[in-house]
Amino acid sequence: MRLILRKMRTLLLALAVLAAFVSAGRAAERVILRNGFVQLCDHHAQVDGRVRLYLTAGEDNYIEFAPEEIATVEQVADPPVPPDESAAASRPNPAPSGTQHPVSANLNPGDLNEMLARAGQAHNLDVDLLLSVVKAESGGNAQAVSRAGAQGLMQLMPQTAAELGVRNSFAPEDNVRGGSAYLDALLTRYRDNLALALAAYNAGPAAVDKYHGIPPYAETRAYVARVIHEFNLRVLAREAQARRAGPPARPSTGQAAAGPQETAR
Q: 44-100 pLDDT, tens per residue?
C-alpha cells in the first residue's frame, strides 16, 4: 500500500508542477497559489471571471484558476547562471573514442525495462519515472559521459557513485541500482515532491536547499519539465492502454471475487 500511495502522490505532484516549467527557459511572473504550489508563467489575465496563466508569450497555451485560488503574483527576474561547481548534468556525450569500457552502449529495450522494473520495485519508484529519467539523462546510452563528468544511464557523478557503492557506472545494472537509490533518497528527503527531487538530482541538494525550492537555473528547470512531461505522457499512455483492454473478467459463478491486494514495499 505504501508503494501505491507513494506513486499516487508522486504523480499528482508531477501533474501539479508540470505547468510551472513548460516555459522553463524564461518566465515573467511567479504565481503563488493558496494550496502552496507555485506556477511560473509568461503573463496572466482575467477572462470570464477566471484567471488565465499564459505559459508562453502567445495566448494559446494557458491554464485557468478561480481568482480565490491565487494568493499573490510576483514579477520574476531573469534566472541566474548556475555556478561552475553545480552538479547540473549537461546533455551527455558519448564516451571519447579512446576510452574503453567493458559494457556495450546498446541495450535491448526489453532488458532495460526489466532492469528498471526491478530497481523500481526495490525503491518504491514507478518504472515509467525511471524510464523518463534515463531518457533525459542519457537517452539509454550506457556509456554516455556528460561535459561535467556524469556517467552511464542515469548519469552518476563519480563522487556520488562512490557514495552509493557503485563500482562501475558504465555497467547498466550497477548504474541503475545507484541512480534509483539516489532518486529514492531524494524523494524521501523532499517528502515525495517529485519536482524538488528531480531538481536535486540535476543540480544537487545543496542548490535546492539554498533556494528553498527549484533553483532558478534555466537548465535545471528545463530538465525538471522534461522529465515530468515524459513521465506524465507515459502514465497517460499506460492508463489509456488499460482502458482499451477493458475491465478484468468477472469471476465465474461460485468463484469468489478476489479482494483488494496491497503491494509490498
A: 999 999 998 887 777 777 778 889 988 888 876 554 444 443 443 444 554 443 343
Alpha helices in 98-217 (DSSP H): 109-123, 127-137, 158-163, 172-189, 194-203, 205-211
pLDDT reading at 238 higher than 60? yes
Q: Which CATH class is domain 28-75?
A: mainly beta
CA distance 176 to 166: 9
The answer for residues whose C-beta is within 8 angstroms of residue 235's C-beta and 6 or more apart is 11, 126, 128
Beta strands per DSSP E along the chain: 29-33, 38-41, 43-47, 50-54, 62-65, 70-75, 93-94, 144-145
Higher pLDDT, 126 or 63: 126
Q: Does domain 1-18+102-244 have CATH number 1.10.530.10?
A: yes
Q: Cα–Cα distance between 111 and 238 in angstroms, integer?
A: 19
Annotated catalytic sites, by residue? 137
**For the chain, what are the domain ranges?**
1-18+102-244, 28-75
**Model pTM score:** 0.63
Cell 541512480, located at residue: 179
